[in-house]
Write a structure and sequence with these properties.
The chain contains eight helices and seven strands, in the order βαβαβαβαβαβαααβ. It has about 250 residues and is an alpha/beta fold.
Length: about 250
């Protein structure tokens, strides 16, 4: 694919099978080229996502990348900017939700979760800012979780990483907002209608019928809304939960 100056690109880092895929589809429907990235071990699934977006009549490119690798992330952004289209939207959507009692949480586990859910977010945000600032516009969205604001038992690694990601988003918003770069952080507070939930939670069909699960498509609609907001009334932090979820 050759650089298309008349087009805009959206990069989704952590374009998994559910929420990340829905976000990529939503921005592709807005006319952007969906650049989807996840770890190279899932390259086949990533290409399936890009192919399905193209089958729907939109544009998409699969870009397998280890988001924890600084050199790889620099190369990813350079490739998109130089060979595909200028980045208008960048979404960091990596999870890392693991549960271990504190005494069973190894240094390796804690470090890996932090690298996935926080450090990779830093690399994504930094590279996005480098390319958006000279143009004077763009949107950067970080996907958070309940763990971004509350450290639950057994989630020391995940909570620490997501707290860090939230602080990163706040710092970036204060620095980049006055330069017309919209930085937003979402708190996805509840179970998502995802493959993992469908395979592991009893009664999931009844929950879906009762609208008790977060819909990936509806989450994605909110991300598009964040991007389209007028700068006189930007949202920085957006809480999303199904109506039955406890506050």
């Amino acid at each position: 694919m050759h650089i298309t100056k008349s087009k805009k690109a959206c990069l989704v880092v952590g374009a998994g099978d559910d929420t990340g895929a829905a976000i990529a589809r939503a921005f592709a429907k807005e006319g952007m080229i969906a650049c989807v990235a996840r770890r190279p071990a899932r390259a086949e699934k990533l290409e399936e996502l890009a192919h399905s977006i193209r089958d729907d009549g939109h544009e998409a490119v699969a870009l397998p990348t280890d988001a924890r690798d600084e050199d790889a992330m620099v190369a990813l952004f350079e490739k998109i900017e130089n060979e595909i289209a200028p980045l208008e939207v960048v979404v960091f959507n990596i999870g890392g939700n693991v549960r271990f009692p504190i005494v069973d949480t190894t240094a390796r586990v804690y470090r890996k979760v932090w690298e996935m859910s926080c450090f990779a977010g830093f690399l994504t945000g930094r590279e996005a800012a480098k390319h958006m600032l000279p143009r004077g516009h763009g949107t950067i969205i970080f996907t958070g979780a309940t763990a971004s604001v509350r450290g639950s038992a057994g989630f020391s690694a995940f909570s620490g990483a997501k707290h860090g990601l939230r602080s990163l988003a706040q710092s970036m918003a204060r620095e980049l907002g006055p330069q017309n770069i919209h930085v937003a952080h979402t708190i996805i507070d509840g179970m998502i209608d995802s493959t993992f939930i469908r395979e592991n939670v009893p009664g999931v069909d009844q929950m879906r019928e009762a609208d008790a699960l977060l819909s990936p498509d509806h989450i994605a609609q909110n991300y598009v809304m964040l991007h389209k907001q007028p700068r006189t009334a930007w949202t920085h932090e957006l809480d999303l939960r199904p109506y039955k979820e406890n506050w």
